[in-house]
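Supplementary Text 2. Reproducibility record for the structural model of the 820-residue chain.

All settings were left at their defaults, and a single model was retained for analysis rather than an ensemble. We include the record here because the model underlies the residue-level annotations in Supplementary Table 4.
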Amino acid sequence: MGSAARRQLQIVPKKQFLVSPSERPPLISRLWKFVRTCVDFLVLVVITFASLTVWFVGESRDRHWAVLSFIDTVELHSLDARFRVRGARPPDSRIAIVGIDDLSLQKFGSYPIARNQYAKLIDQLSAGGAKVIALDMTFPLPEKNSAVESLKNLETQIEPNRVQRTKLREIERTSDNDAVLAASMKRANNVILGHFFLDQTQAKSMDEKRSEEYFNIIWARPFPQIQKFSSGRNFEVARAWSLAHGDIGYGIESNMKVIAEAAKSYGFFDMDSDADGAFRRAVLIMRYRDRDFFPSLDIQAVREYENIPDQDVAGKMSENGLEEIQLGSHKIKTRHDGTAFINYAGPYRTYQHYSMADVVQGTVPSSVFKGKIVLVGYTAKAVADLRPTPFQHSDYMGVEIHANIIDNILHSSDPARGFLKRGVIEEIVTAACILLFGLGLGYWFRRSKPLYATFSAAAVLLLFGTSVYIGFVRFGIWFSFVIPAAVLVMVYGTETSFRLRVEERERRTVRETFSRYVSPDVIHLIEGDPRRYLKAGGENKELSIMFCDIRSFTTLSEDLTPDELVSLLNEHLGKMTEAILKNWGTLDKYIGDAVMAFWGSPYPQKDHAMLACKAALEMRSALKELNQKWQTEGKKQLAIGIGISTGFVNVGNMGSIQRFAWTVMGDNVNLASRLEGMTKEYKVQCVVSEFTFAQIKDHFVCRELDRIRVKGKMRPVCIYELLALAKDAPLYSDLLARFGVALAAYRRQDWAQAIWSFDELLSIYPEDGPSAVLLERSREFQSVKPVPQWDGVLCHESQVIRGRLLRPIPQPLGRILHRY
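Retained model, structure tokens:
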């Protein structure tokens, strides 16, 4: 309920229920209500902008406040809920996982597995046609091999001859599992080796020399290009990356030189977890110290899989940080820190898993890996490569996270399967929702009744939640849910509790005061705006008025019993009323078998004429269905006439001190009633005035029928038949064209041409009522000419056609025109 409405809810004497427009509440009451309004608005502003501030600060990486960390965690859990509700989606079949599972540890011995077994695995995968083999593991130190050490000790002790020394060296070479693995990788020529970049604390414990040695190897395969994003301002890439909190490595958990040199390419597999420890972001690019940028294992896997050359790989950097990564045909929108939100395909084992033992021993045919990206990693729980994810807070292995990231990259052009989008546009939408829920809905809650406010809040919350979920599932968009929803709930709770007691008391006062004087159906209108709805005489307003009547109802009622008549009438009026209310009409009253309705009040409607005509067409269709039903039941069938006119009328409370009703009065009401009667004269179902036609002509098919002059009016009115919606215009084009030619001849008083045209039209459309009426009229005019001053207008009150009569009408013409 609005403040204007609240100002009017004063306790009045029970017989003084018509409030004068000149009356005003006392000054103190007006000031108090103004203060209340200001306080209400101030509360909305505080809630809204406090929420905006919390959300804006929470979007940054620096969350020092516990409340921000809590809100961020709740939002992350809401994202997890979206994943779980959505469930698993089909994974990319080009990705396979070979897991070093518990079975493999049992078959090949305890962890770590001998590296010659990895060599056998790579040989099997390569033989099967695997396109890319990505190793989610490192080989930092030489494998301890007691056989090789024993051979070296033997060589120093027995001083072998040249042949023996050669033989010993050959045995050492074939027993050196590091060399065996390196040889296998060289033969395959498609192995991507993984490594960790370390932070400053971790880097202190690493061998600097070994890290530098490994860096010199991977230095040949950095991220190909870092391009400055056009912003019109010069900036340093390193500083922009640092300000964006991009990951920087200060050390490397490296691989052995002999193994590293055998790899086709390299990629890091660092991952960043969120505050709750779950992994929701993919780190796609990192900077190593101040030297260069390097790609992730997942980026390199896709790059090698699609043979993307260096010139087609670039990171677009702005002064705010990384904007996007161009990877061949894939354009990946990233966060400024080089991460992207992973769109998980499903829970653990959504992707196809194979045991390493089964692959090495040939239990799994190597051909199943043909043309695929094969990820090799630990899946045994004993190794504990467990990572919490949105689907599972435990038992989700890191190697499958890489499978999800690669899947997202491969499907970067598919919104539902690429990385989740949470950029500037999404942030603008979130901010707009906070403002809308805080100020817009707050204003609505303040003006509406508590029950409506409750339904509105629930509906908007449901709609918002549904929209957030659909955006997530179908478009891969992560809209913030928690803060906008919290704003909505807080504003609703604050506004509702602030005014519930006062407004409920006022509502009871209105009901107790006016329920004995007015119909219960309009009490809710009085409560909403007492000054408007209790004003004597209402207001002058443009509306569209409809009258609908049953043809020959008196004759019909004579053939039916009272019960049959009531049943038939109730069913008919029910359908007619349903069509009116469906199109936002106001049912004024039933007048026997007739229905009166209007559009444009009390609900303001700019398209009231269109709604009235749409209702008329639906009433016609509903009657057709009823007649078909009644025909099958052996009952009487009905015909109706509908008249519609648009114009200014007086709308409001009309009646006596004991009872009044919300209704309309005026010349346009009388015109609508007379138009309903004209449907019988012209043998049509619906007639509209020229004023209605002017507002609907672009949306409906109408036919000009005649010009009439109603009783008490000198100005003639052009009337039209309402035929159909504009989309059905082709069905009526021939009829309208022929009728237009005939009507033009009729108005020129070319009776012979008019008779011929109407006669020809009826031969094609034998049931066209207006053509039959004007044909008979033309024949009669051909016999008895009208007065010379006749202007073609049907004067309704005397049922004769005339202009300004300057001489008496011949008696035969009066007889001829009696039926008109």
